[in-house]
């Protein structure tokens, strides 16, 4: 009987030790947690700055600079359908932007990928000279490619007045 009690006690002690080790793995120390949170904050600021820069480049009609932020496999989705990088740049490059601004951005990082959502407002004139007000809710998916953040996918929908 003593051997059984001792064996049960030993098994329980081992189970507690393993449980404590697993709990320690799940809870990073304060320094590790702060580093991870700082990294997420850095990604958020970096991508918000890049989105702002992209809007500035659009306003300046600098489609070459905008294109450099897009991955070669970039795809865009909107009310008119799906297009690739070349098609999107051709469509956008056919317009002259006089206003362009992003706001209400939120960033959700996932390692070397992040989703950025926000609002875009601007004014554009098409090749026929027709001016259009642009008011879009958008979502860009960014991925770190070769050490640089690139937009790999974008979607947008016309915002409706509430």
Report on this structure.
The protein has 162 residues and is of the alpha+beta class. It has one domain: Nuclear Transport Factor 2, Chain: A. Helix content is 43%, strand content 41%. It has four helices and six strands; from the N terminus they run αααββαββββ. A six-stranded mixed beta sheet has the order 2-1-6-5-4-3. It is globular and about 45 Å long. The termini are far apart. Mean pLDDT is 81; it is low at 1-38.
Features:
162 residues; alpha+beta; Nuclear Transport Factor 2, Chain: A; six-stranded mixed beta sheet; globular; disordered N terminus
Summarize the structure.
By secondary structure, this protein is α+β, with helices and mostly antiparallel strands.
Mean pLDDT: 81
Low-confidence stretches: 1-38
Query: What order do the SSEs take from the amino end to the carboxyl end, as H and E?
Result: HHHEEHEEEE
Total beta-strand segments: 6
First-to-last CA distance: 76 Å
Shape designation: globular
CATH class: Alpha Beta
The Cα radius of gyration reads 25 Å
Structural classification:
alpha+beta
Task: Estimate percent helicity.
Answer: 40-55%
The tally of helices reads: 4
Fill in the CATH topology: Nuclear Transport Factor 2, Chain: A
Structurally, how many domains make up the residues?
A: 1
Share in β-strands:
35-45%
SSE topology:
Elements: H1 2-26, H2 30-59, H3 63-68, E1 70-78, E2 81-84, H4 85-93, E3 96-110, E4 113-125, E5 131-145, E6 148-158
Parallel strand pairs: 1-6
Antiparallel strand pairs: 1-2, 3-4, 4-5, 5-6
